[in-house]
Write a structure and sequence with these properties.
about 550 residues, alpha/beta, 9-stranded mixed β-sheet, about 15% strand
Length: about 550
């Protein structure tokens, strides 16, 4: 997100602060009005008075190490998010790229509460004690807190504040209103009593997070996890997957974890050139997996056995524009029917090798789901709609039969002409069992010897599409366009689809055949990815008729 006039003119900011301080000191009334105003306006408090520290600026460059904290839009949103969580008494999670200032925001919010909310008790925890507090080390959370408080004008500090007494190791006390900020580390997080809000810094990296969850469950009604990503299956990842993504104007969900995303592109000082330079450096140094994890927020970057590499999925975004092919030919669709609990229905429609529709919804009535999917398919003309026919998906067949048998006022079947519903059984036997996995290669194994079932075969074929697309873009290799795939950048649900496509892992089963695990421990069923796989791997290889669809 490029913002004009970034970075700010810090000289002007310092000048404005000095004038504001003169007004503040002009009379007791001015100080009283300021206190009343800032108590209700945390963003303004931060921008008007809080300073941050960046030791990278201590190299004699243009900027000093200590700077006024000027918030960019995403950081302002984060402040709003944190106060909304407290107001609604709900849990939150901040999924961030590296160097986005999320911890500094939470530190500033902690100081604001400490100053202006009498009796507030703010908790902080991290995996190691030295990360929570190490006197004199600005990398530690509590040294940041002390730096923020010490940089405030004396007029804004509590009367009688004694740094040695009130700004001590892992404990910050306001001597006037009794507010506190306390810290804990490791397995002791959450043992220190009740808290208004509890910040868990870098919580995706905890060694025994389940113990901490048990301790914190009765400690606070507002638990906020702040972290870069660190693989799948851990508590942070599970909470993120089960949560709901928050955006400005969206109400806080009091039953689920509210997720706030800070992507590298939200930083006004980071553009595509910055990204490409950092990425190239990481690749050259053999640290791309770290880059993908810390910058791209790629949970699967450190996971072994991923079926579809996240880099391949990224290459497929707008691949049709880069490689010069269009969405042509008959459309196909895949419908993943919701199972139980929090599972959702998902529909993907593709024309040729360009995905056109990607959506999900929570309807539990299979009949309604069938009709909704058919309605979405109608604008794309005759097509084959493949649906997951196992379990609750079997209800789609019943609705298909009803629509085929019942007629409208003109005597026409309710099932639209040209929409062909095809059952798709993931556990079915592979297609073309006697053909080779790599056509024309006599050393390649037979399909029946390589894949355990239709699911494995389908996911592997889609994998090959993404791999070829990636190589076509990054290496210039020419493949037939009908062997590639493209995900439009404006496709609704693209971010979720990206994550789901790179969630599944592959291994060899007892018979040494390929087995696909769509939902490794700690993940949810990849509904959108399943729908895409079905859309691109027709189980019924019949003939296509322009007026009838697949027959």
């Amino acid at each position: 997100m490029l913002i004009e006039n970034w970075p700010p003119d810090y000289r002007k900011v310092w000048g404005s602060r000095q004038k504001r301080l003169e007004i503040l000191r002009s009379s007791p009334r001015a100080r009283g009005c300021a206190a009343h105003f800032y108590a209700a306006h945390p963003q303004e408090f931060i921008e008007d008075w809080v300073c941050t520290y960046d030791p990278r600026n201590a190299d004699g460059g243009d900027l000093p190490a200590t700077l006024p904290f000027i918030l960019f839009p995403k950081q302002r949103e984060l402040v709003t998010f944190l106060y909304a969580l407290m107001e609604c008494q709900a849990d939150g999670l901040v999924e961030k790229s590296r160097d986005m200032g999320a911890t500094w925001i939470a530190v500033a919010v902690s100081v604001h509460l400490w100053l202006y909310r009498p009796g507030a008790s703010v908790g902080w925890g991290s995996r190691k004690e030295q990360l929570v507090d190490k006197i004199g080390d600005p990398d530690s959370i509590f040294e940041k807190i002390r730096m923020v408080i010490n940089s405030l004008p004396v007029d804004m500090k509590p009367m009688g504040l004694d740094p040695k007494k009130h700004l001590s190791f892992m404990k910050i006390v306001n001597p006037i209103n009794g507010a506190t900020i306390t810290g804990e580390a490791g397995d002791n997080i959450g043992r220190g009593g009740r808290k208004l809000i509890y910040f868990k810094d870098e919580s995706a990296h905890y060694e025994r997070p389940e113990r901490i969850e048990a301790a914190l469950s009765d400690n606070t009604r507002v638990q906020v996890d702040i972290s870069s990503v660190n693989g799948i299956g851990n508590v942070f990842h599970r909470r993120r997957e089960a949560g709901v993504e928050w955006s400005p104007g969206r109400p806080i969900n009091t039953k689920k974890t509210n997720v706030f995303v800070m992507d590298w592109s939200d930083h006004p000082a980071k553009d595509r050139a910055w990204y490409d330079k950092r990425r190239a450096k990481a690749v050259e140094e053999g640290l791309f997996h770290i880059f993908a994890q810390e910058v791209d927020r790629d949970y699967s970057a450190s996971v072994e056995g991923i079926v579809i590499d996240p880099a391949w999925v990224r290459s497929a975004i707008d691949a049709h524009k880069v490689l010069g092919f269009e969405a042509k030919g008959p459309a196909t669709a895949g419908l993943d029917v919701a199972d139980e609990g929090l599972d959702r229905n998902a529909l993907v429609i593709a024309r040729g090798n360009v995905v056109q529709v990607c959506k999900e919804w929570g309807e539990r009535d299979t009949g309604k789901t069938t009709r909704r999917a058919i309605d979405a398919c109608l604008p794309f003309g005759p097509l084959a709609l493949q649906y997951d026919s196992i379990g609750v998906g079997s209800g789609v067949k019943a609705e298909q039969n009803r629509l085929s048998e019942e007629v409208d006022s003109e005597g026409q079947p309710l099932l639209p002409k040209g929409i062909t519903l095809i059952p798709w059984n993931a556990a079915a036997s592979v297609l073309w069992p006697d053909k080779r996995v790599v056509d024309g290669d006599r050393n390649s194994p037979l399909n029946q010897d390589f894949y355990s079932n239709l699911k494995a075969q389908a996911w592997w074929q889609v994998r090959r599409r993404f791999e070829k697309t990636h190589r076509a873009i990054t290496e210039g290799i020419v493949y037939p366009h009908d062997e590639l795939i493209s995900l439009p950048s404006d496709l609704p649900g693209l971010r979720q689809l990206q994550k789901e496509l790179s969630q599944a892992t592959v291994s060899k089963g007892a018979r040494m055949k390929l087995v696909i695990d769509k939902a490794p421990e700690g993940t949810r069923s990849p509904n959108m990815a399943d729908a895409l796989v079905m859309a691109y791997w027709p189980a019924n290889q019949g003939a296509y008729d322009a007026s009838l669809g697949w027959v």
